[in-house]
Structures are given as structure tokens and as C-alpha cells.
Amino acid sequence: MNEKIEIRWHGRGGQGAKTAALLLADVAFKIGKQVQGFPEYGPERMGAPITAYNRISDEVIRVHSNIYHPDYVVVVDETLLHTVDVTRGLNPAGAIIVNTAKSPEEIAPQVAPYNGKIVTIDARKISEEALGKYFPNSPMLAAVVAVTGIMPREVFLKEMLTSYEHKFAKKPEVIEGNMKALEMTFDAVENK
Amino acid sequence: MRTDISKINESTPYTGLTEGLQIFAGGTTKYFNTGEWRNNTPVFHEDKCKQCLLCAPVCPDSCIPVIDGKRGEFDLDHCKGCGICVKNCPFGALEMKEGVN
Amino acid sequence: MAIRERMSGNEAVSYAIKQINPDVMPAFPITPSTEIPQMVSNYIANGEIDTEFIPVESEHSSMSAAIGAEAAGARSLTATSSAGLAFMWEELLLAASNRMPVALALVNRTLSGPLNINCDHTDGMGARDTGWIQIYAENNQEAYDNFIQAYPIAEHPEVRLPIMICQDGFITSHAVENILLLEDEPVKEFVGEYQPEEFLLNPGKPVAVGPYAVSNFVMEARKNQLIALENSKQVILDVAKKFAQISGREYGLFEEYRTEDADYIMVIMGSAAGTAKEAVDQMRGEGHKVGVLKIRVFRPFPAEEIAEALKNAKAVAIMDRAESYNGNGGVLGGEITSGLFKKKYMVDCVNYIYGLGGRDFTVTNTMEIFHQLSDMVENGTEVEQYQYVGIRN
Lengths: 192, 101, 393
What we know:
The complex is a heterotrimer.
Chain A lengths: L4 E8 L4 H14 L3 E7 L8 E9 L14 E4 L4 H4 L11 E5 L4 H8 L5 E5 L1 H9 L5 H12 L4 H15 L5 H18 L2
Parallel strand pairs in A: 1-4, 4-5, 5-6
Antiparallel strand pairs in A: 1-3, 2-3
Chain B lengths: L39 E5 L21 E2 L2 E2 L12 H5 L5 E5 L3
Antiparallel strand pairs in B: 1-4, 2-3
Chain C lengths: L2 E5 L1 H12 L3 E4 L7 H11 L6 E4 L3 H14 L4 E4 L1 H6 L1 H9 L5 E6 L13 H5 L6 E4 L3 H15 L8 E6 L7 E6 L2 H8 L23 H33 L6 E4 L6 E6 L2 H14 L4 E6 L1 E3 L3 H8 L4 E6 L10 H12 L5 E6 L9 H17 L6 E3 L5
Helix pairs in contact in C: 1-2, 1-7, 3-5, 7-9, 10-13, 11-12
């Protein structure tokens, strides 16, 4: 990847879409990228639709506006497909990544007339299997990395392990589950 | 920056004033003879005074000197003639007189 | 060696505060600056710095306490936004008139109403006549760099004035971006220890701060404040030069981006300047001679220097992120045009109000504005001289 990629996240307040965007900025930073990760803020309201953004580039990023023509869109909560125009401005050569148990074919009518690539990832299933709880962040983050190809799988996993070891220094028992969630997501995306 | 503020007055040019008009000295209020503001003057009748010292602490301008447990004459350079000490004296040892002296 | 990092604007300023380790920080939380006192409190709780944090009950109190601490001889600071800055109004003027070099991290947010938490410059512009130095940042890097330069400017013996280090709420305060941090030692050395000549807790050298001034003294006191503010211009440049030696990053009163031969120049302040530069690069690629003048130092206002920088332009777009309700334009619109007028430079200036209450300002907006300027000059098209960017009508 040698150009700027722009990503828009759709989630609900409290679900961690903003955190996932910041994590993505973090991991891209660690492999030497220029990054931006920022939320579009309203008053904090649990459950309200929220948007977060990433710019990732090899060159210094100066633009400080929202993203209107994203290369990728990530939908952390599939119920937003009914209420938010998630594919607005989406680059047809890019992709939309949806957290759902459904298949891309089932999602397609909900995002029409967008006819670009659709990737579905069942973050709930992966998270519950790997972590025993529903935390969609790790699977969604891995899905974005897998789909966009920002960095190779092994590099990503190595960086994430380092950051989990730092973040969960006091509860190392959750590191394995999180790493497993990332691996399972990569497997799922790569096998599609 | 420490300046002899006694040299500063109302005709000092801006270049001669201190930064933020800070005053580089302590206890400067004694240089202001607020006694000049007085219309009425308290009088001390030492013969009636029991040295109970109820007058000294109520004076807003600290004009009743107490030395060795005994009050003395008023500091009329700074007494504004408010009369609070007179109201507080239980023995009639203080009295307000009209006029500045 | 610079430390490569990524952090938000609020983190960057908090990190600068950690490296400076000031003496006293009274603060009261308000969005979007809340994270700054929060992060500094964490540094204190973790024993990384020994700043005295004072949780106060309002911004009126935080600025009062900052002034009090400064008068006592402590290097002090606070952080706020929007209504918090408005609630400090009285104390802002006191800090300046008492000549207290307090630092304030302002995270710009609009003021109600309508009630809104997002970015514009209404708060900072509202404080423009308080006698503070005001420096604005384009991104997290500049917010960090400006904060490190804050005390050397404010505490300079020729200045001794409070300083506001401003960044755009959410747009930079909450956006994680790459940043180059300095190591602790060069920062400590650069900022130095605070050694005021006169201060309240100085045994044997009594001083009274903020005395009543009868009418005979007030104009002279204000004149001295003005002189100090004018002095700060050179000090800001000198400090920037010194800062460049430890950071490699150069700063002036404003930044001229591709303006040397520009027919059309956009004057802008804060995070949107980066967006405008991006537009300039794209338009230069298409052969348009356009440039950006980004204001860094808003107070003291470099009116003459800006006039000199704009005098050869065919037209200028002056961008204001706050309304001024004078019916004639925004704050920058008014100050820049009067600067040009005094120099007798008759340059066409169109004043644009943009980005109020967090309204996004884009590369496309910038290009449309440049095209409007060129249309006005080259085709004689009538252009509204004072207009709102992207207003629905």
C-alpha cells in the first residue's frame, strides 16, 4: 500500500467504534505510517449512531475534515444499515465490512445501490468463542486490516500481541483470547 | 524591578510606574493619613477607663494602641471617627466630640 | 533524539505539561478540554510530576487560583473551553493587568447558543481584548510545540503577560495523529526554572499585588500592558528561534504557505489551515497561483506584517471561525483590512465565516473560495463581501 486510504466507521455510542478507529491508527502508526484517527462528536449518548474516521498514509496528513469519499466503510452494528446511509460516498473499488451473521448476498439488498465489495464478519460469534464475551472491537479491527491489506497478517499479529501485553499487563489471561479472535477473523476473511 | 514607591505619585509618567502597579513595600497604609477624613473625634477620659480593652479590637483602623496591657491615646492620624469604640465602652470613658480635633 | 509517537491534541498538551512540571494547576472540567486536567492528574497520581492540582468548583475559581498561585511565586496554569473561558472573563483581565505569566490551554469550542459542544473560535475571539497573548495551533504537533514555548514567552522580563495556547476542539484535541516529541531533558532546559523577581511568598521583600488604582494611574498601567504585549512579538520570534534549535521546527508570527507568487491568498487560523494547504497543493498542480497565510500568533496581532505579506495579492479570502456581530465581518476580517488600510494597500478582501459549531470545512470549500476570488478579479463577477461558507439558502 503506497497511497492514502480513508476509512469511515459506523457504530453506536458505547460499542467501541471510536476505540477501534484509534486502535487501527495505533497499529498503523507502529509500522511507520502517518495516521489520523478521530471521532465525529455529538453529545455522548449510549446507543446513538456515531461515526469515526481513519486516514492512513505514507505522507504527512494535513487535512482536518471529515471523510466523504471513504475507501472502506466499517459497520460495527448491522442495525445501522436501516437507519444510516452507510455507503454514502463509498469508493466502489473499496469495500464495506459489516458485523453480521448474514452473508454478503443477504446484506447486498440493504446497501443497494452500492454494488462494490461486501465483506461480512460475525464478530459476535468469533468474540464469544474466543473470549467468552461479546467485544466486537478486536474482530472488527482484524477484519479491516485483513480486507484493506494495510499490513501483512503476521506483522499485524505481532504488533497486536505487543500492545495487548502492554495493555493487559495485569490480566494476561485475556491476551490469548484476544489473539485468538484476531486469528479467527483473519481466517474467516481469507476464506471468503 | 523593586522600586522606591515613595517616589511614585499621581504625576509619575507611565515609564516610571511599577509592573502591574505592584507595591514593593509592606504596611504602606500607615503613609495614608486617613485621619484627615474625620468629621467627629473620639475623646479618651483616662480617669474613667478600667483598662478592660474592649475598645481596641473593635477599631477598624487599629487606632487604639495597646502597650504592656494598657491602652493609650488615640492615633488621630488614622482614626476616621466612626465611633464604634465609644459604643463599645461600658464605662463612659470614651466620648465623641463634633469636629476634627 | 525526537520521539516518534501518535497522540491526540489533548494528550500532546498534557505531555508537554508533564515535561514542564509546573507548580500549580487549578482546573474545572469542560468539554472538550476535560482530558487535559484528567491526564495531568494521572501524571501527578502516578508520581511522575509534583504539580499541585487544585480541584476547584468553577472556572471563575480556577483562574483566580492560578493568578493567586502565580502571584505567590508559583508557575501555574489551567485548561478550559467555551463557557469555561467565558466564566473566567473577569479574571482573564486581572491576570493580564497584574502581569501574571499564567498559561492556559484553550481547547476552542463555540459558545451557546445554540447549545453546541463543537469547535469554533468564539471563545478565543471573545477573549481577544483581555490582554492575553494568544497562539493558535494547526495540529497536535503545534499545540505541543506552542505549549513548550509558552512559559519562556510569558515569563520573559520584557513581557510578563498571561498566555493562551489554543487548539481546535475535537478536530485536533481528540484526533490521534503522528507527533514528534522532545525528550524530557531538553524541554526542562528550554523552559527552565521559574524565578520571578518579585512574589508574595518572599520573606523580607513584601509586595502588594493588584492594588486599587485611582483614575490617575489606570491609563498609564494599560499603556504599560500594551508595551509588554508589543514586546512579546519579538520575544515570540526569539523563543521560536531557540525552539528550532532543539526541535528543528520553525515558527513565526504566521506561516506563509506558497504565497510568494500567489495571486490569491487565504488567511486562516487553526486546524482548517491544513485542509486549506492541501487544497493549495492540488490547485497549484492545476496551475492556479494560490497560497495560504496561517495565523499562529493572534495576540499580539501582527497587522503590519500581515499587510506586508498580502500587499501583492490580487484578492484575499479572510476566514473567520467566529461571528463578530458588527455587521461588517468577523474579527480577522476587521483587523486585517484595517491593517491593510493603514498601510494604504488596497487589496480586495472577501470575509468568510466558516466552521461555526463544528461545521466541517473541506478541501472543496477551499477550492470554491479560491475560484470565487479569481472569478471576482478576472471576470468582474460581483461577490458578496461578507458571507457564510456552505450556508443553506
